[in-house]
Amino acid sequence: MVFDEAIKKFWKESPNGTVVNFAEGLETQRFRLQKDMAEDALWISIDLPEAMAAREKFIEPDDKHLHLDVSVLNAGAWMPLVPKDKPVFFTAQGLFMYLEEEENKYLFQQLADHFPGATLQFDCISKWFSDKATKGDWKLTRHYTTPKMPFGVNKPNVQLLFDSWVPGIQIKQVEMPTDKLDGMLRWIVPLFLSIPYLKRMQPGFFLRVKFPSK
Ligand SMILES: C[S@@+](CC[C@H](N)C(=O)[O-])C[C@H]1O[C@@H](n2cnc3c(N)ncnc32)[C@H](O)[C@@H]1O
Q1: Binding-site residues, ligand 1, Cβ < 6 A
Q2: How far apart are CA 81 and CA 73, in angstroms?
Q3: What whole-number percentage of the chain has pLDDT above 70?
Q4: How does residue 77 score in pLDDT terms, banded at 50, 70 and 90?
Q5: Structural domains of the chain, count
Q6: What domain range includes position 115?
Q7: CATH code assigned at 187
């Protein structure tokens, strides 16, 4: 939802722009956005080789949708393949919480160096949520243990942390469109978010950052 809207807006402003989707997995977002994609726009999916092989059992790359089976942390392998003469919008959905803090810091710094002025939108979890998951024994059901999620940051610390990685980075919180939630959640979530303490400790949220222009 929040990612579709952000990409639509990006392509409206930059019809020839490139979307780079980190850790795309089996996402089908590109099909939802087909009608928003102009002739000279490009979509680049990046995921680990095993995940990309699984994706390609169902979804094939084409001239406008490239698949790169490489780690996002192997910047030297994928960055040269992203056009530098056009605007770029990076997205990461369900990725950064699974990386170590140092890995995220490295990636942010590489993006800032190679794509000054570019935007990155991603989801993030809070530190308490990360700590709880990373103990490795958080069983949500009898058969499902929450995977380890080593990276999280509480909302009040977001600015300080990302600015220490990339000085001058602009950070915006992307509000959750609660009117599109199902059933009782449509009422419970806004109530929860109206309480300052709970809002600060919100377990998951969306951020958009803009890397400084050189
Ligand atoms: C929780 S899934 C999210 C998939 C998809 N974005 C979604 O929201 O449905 C995490 C994805 O991150 C990918 N991933 C993990 N580490 C990665 C890395 N270093 N580089 C690229 N992708 C990675 C996994 O292969 C997997 O596809």
Answers
A1: 22-25, 27, 46-48, 51, 71-73, 93-95, 98
A2: 14
A3: 100
A4: very high
A5: 1
A6: 2-210
A7: 3.40.50.150
